[in-house]
Amino acid sequence: MSGAARGGGKGGRPARPSSEAFWWALFSAGGVMAALFVPAFILTTGFLLPSSDAMAAAGGAGKVAAAVGWWPVRVAIFGIVALSLFHCAHRIRHTLMDLGLRRAGGVLKVLCYGGAAAGCVWLGAVLARV
Amino acid sequence: MSGQYHRSHSRAWFLERPGYIRFMIRELTSFFVAAYLVVLILTLGRAAAGEAALAEWLQALSGTGWMVAHGVALVMAVWHAVTWFKAVPQAMPIFIGEKKLDAPVAAVLMGYGPWLTVTAGVVWWAVR
Amino acid sequence: MSDSKTITLELFRYHPETDSEPRFQSYEVPYDEDWVVLDAINWIKDYVDGSVTHRWSCRMGVCGSCGMMVNGEPKLTCAAFLKSYYPFPVRVEPLVNFPVERDLVVDMDGFMEKLRDVKPYIIRDDVNDTSQGEYRQSPAELAQYKQYSMCINCMLCYSACPVVGHEEEFLGPAALALGHRYNKDSRDRGKSERMEVMLSNEAMWGCTFVGECSVVCPKHVDPAGAIQQAKAMGAQEYFKRFVMPRGAGTKGAGASRGAGA
After folding, report:
1. pLDDT tens readout for residues B51-62
2. For chain B, how many structural domains are there in total?
């Protein structure tokens, strides 16, 4: 019967371990980070800091830069943003697959996770200089 | 097997059920979150370039266009968080003995509670 | 019975020996507010058109065989009351995401294969003789999987899932939920065997948590939740292989896992 062929390995052989578990783990951790932190980040960098009153209260751009410069903050920002990037990459990839690009799955994988990885490198370079 | 009839799928399947539309909106939030993260890295880059560069960049961000863009991103990010916290009790049920913790309680404990704490903390850190 | 009120049923008709394309056929059925859609189809078959083909058995939401699309919604027709639709016509189609065998009957072989693949039964090497007593389980241990054991294999969730429609290798909501049900059973030792199947590329990871499977489930199984838990379990299993390669801490199936991790 063809029962063993579906889902699992063909002809009773074990299925190939999937990298999907790894990407899903990043997606999942990143989802938590994005949900907890991103709204607060947008509130801060999109509204509070650009509005001059808050900037004055914060003691100007110098103080902001100094606050970000403390290394535990930099490490935290890296972790949060990097995981969030992979979260988004995974979701965008799977949504595009659901939308009919399933056959371009390999290309999507490279583009999405590659994009997230590039973002991480960029982020790392930026944070190293703050 | 011949003789069977195979129905084809609509390319616009995501419009077929309200739940599918809600799903697409949820998924779409990740695009806006990603776009914001790029802007955030740009902002950090300006901070790295020095005080004057950051001040100039923040000045630009106070323009209407950026404010609208951040407004949209905020709505999307909040919706991302809300849908995530809705999913958490389903994906990570907590049992106390033989009783599963009610979904709203679990969502507050594992989602909304930490969310408020984190948000307050980040805002305090930035403007203190 | 009631007075002369009637309701229109539009049935999906397809007879492979004569039809190359399906068509809809309308029937006027006496309207009774106690009737469900299944009663109306049975009435048509008994009194109007014996060639109408459909599956049903218990007519009380237990057997899971009368699932059909009712006005585009996957439903147990034994639980879909005519009064929810009256006076408008009711359109009945076979469950979507399945090949149509004949009229309202779908081919469920693919589903049965997927079900078989997750090994939905307790696996353990040390099967005790009944004289040695029972395998005990506490109420708390039972609670871990009870919800997922309520599945009646009605396949409504497969019709609600867009991923099932697009990805053939995807095991689908009910099968994954049942696999998870046994993985969570304290008496079971077969998790690693099941994970062989569930960890493969498209078997489980194609699920994007649309969540409609849980919405349409007549037994409140919440397959969507079960799949996310299974993914978390799968991710743990995946990382465990780096720490303990070659199926350490597993039974039986560990040896067949092969080299590399």
Report:
1. 888 888 998 999
2. 2
CA dihedral sign, ordered C177, C179, C182, C183: negative
CATH number of the domain enclosing A63: 1.20.1300.10
Partners of C106 in beta bridges:
C100
B19-33: per-residue pLDDT in tens? Answer: 999 999 999 999 999
Of A13, A21, A94, the CB nearest to C199: A21
Element (H, E) at C139: helix C139-143
CATH, domain C6-106, list 3.40.50.2000, 3.10.20.30, 3.40.50.80, 3.40.50.450: 3.10.20.30
* Cα C97 from Cα C90, distance rounded (Å): 20
Residue A80, pLDDT score: 98
Residue among B5, B16, B98 minimizing CB distance to C143? B98
Closest CA to A34 of B39, B75, B80: B80
Compute the count of residue pairs across chains A and B with CB atoms less than 8 Å apart: 161
* Reported ipTM: 0.93
Q: Residue with structure tokens 């390995």?
A: A9
